[in-house]
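== Fold encoding ==
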Amino acid sequence: MDLTLGPGPQLIWGPNAAGKTTLLEAIVLLSLGRSHRTGADTELIRWGTDFLRVEGVVEAAAENTADGAAHPEGSASTEAGLDEPPADSVALDVSLQAGGRKRIQVNGVPRRPTALAEHLRTVLFAPEEMLLVIGPPTLRRTALDQLAAPHDHMYGSHLSTYTRALSQRNSLLRQVRDGEADRAQLRYWDEPFLASGAAIVAARLRLLELIREPLAAAHREIAPAEEPLVLSYATNAPLLSGESPREALTRRLGETAEKEAWNGTTLVGPHRDDLVFGIGGRDLTTFASRGQQRTAILALKLAELDLLTALDGRPPLLLLDDVFSELDPLRRGHLVRRIAELPQALVTTTVPEDLDPDLRRQARAWRVVADEDGARVEEGGQ
């Protein structure tokens, strides 16, 4: 699938399973180095092939206006490269092999995944995020991590270190429980666990302070009659007076040592923390209507747009995956106004006629058609 996008709203439409979400997933892959729908890279590779490659060119002068080619379906024969990008643009390339090897390049130079977001920032609003308020904590932790990463260049590294230390700790704890290892062996992994875990908590707390005003403003815009929307951090290692995140985590690790050995797993740390949406001191999980939940999620996405734009004045690329049907006319209107202010946004839908008429008038339409090679894109056809 090859596509060159201009500025302004881009309407991507077609029947279910045609490839609309796959296109957005390819753009997310170019932005984050991973999918938003699966944690297993091998699941992105098309059945019957052993290779996937996604390429794109971001026009720097156009402030995150994407102009390039995408090959999101993946194929052993997908070898076509982009033409040499203009001097003021950046070429991004992500490839995956069935064996699990991932290669990321920026302007032909191998880089880490965190380098991608420096050139292509995205804000994704997808149907599965409608569960963000009432769904499992892992959804909110993932949202926190994605929000925090652009504001702390070491955040991704801290997450990687913490994940590895946690895995090793849990493995040892299972051996301790089964009498196959001594608890003293945990000390080797306690140091990276505490250092990276404390850094993650500190970065999340800084993020919540940064987003407090943009979130309140976005919520006030959408629901002026409601009390302010507040995000708070629910942690199993709360800070006592004068404590740092590391000190709190160290204290809690000591308090749960016996129970950890009995259960064979690490019971405290940022992997068990949560994000709480609240209005008027009440947790939205327990009392909010579906409309209030959707208002909170939309406010969070609009606040994320503002927060990323504030980093250096470059608005991110907004990706809306068939979410208009989830919103009432008032919330749709707020979203359409925000889309009109952005340099570029991609909106998917199965039926263009169901979208806001103002958005349809502004948008450039693209039809996604499934074919034997995966999918192709045709301009027009609203």
Observations:
- The chain has a mean pLDDT of 86.
- The domain at 8-121+314-379 is CATH 3.40.50.300 (Rossmann fold).
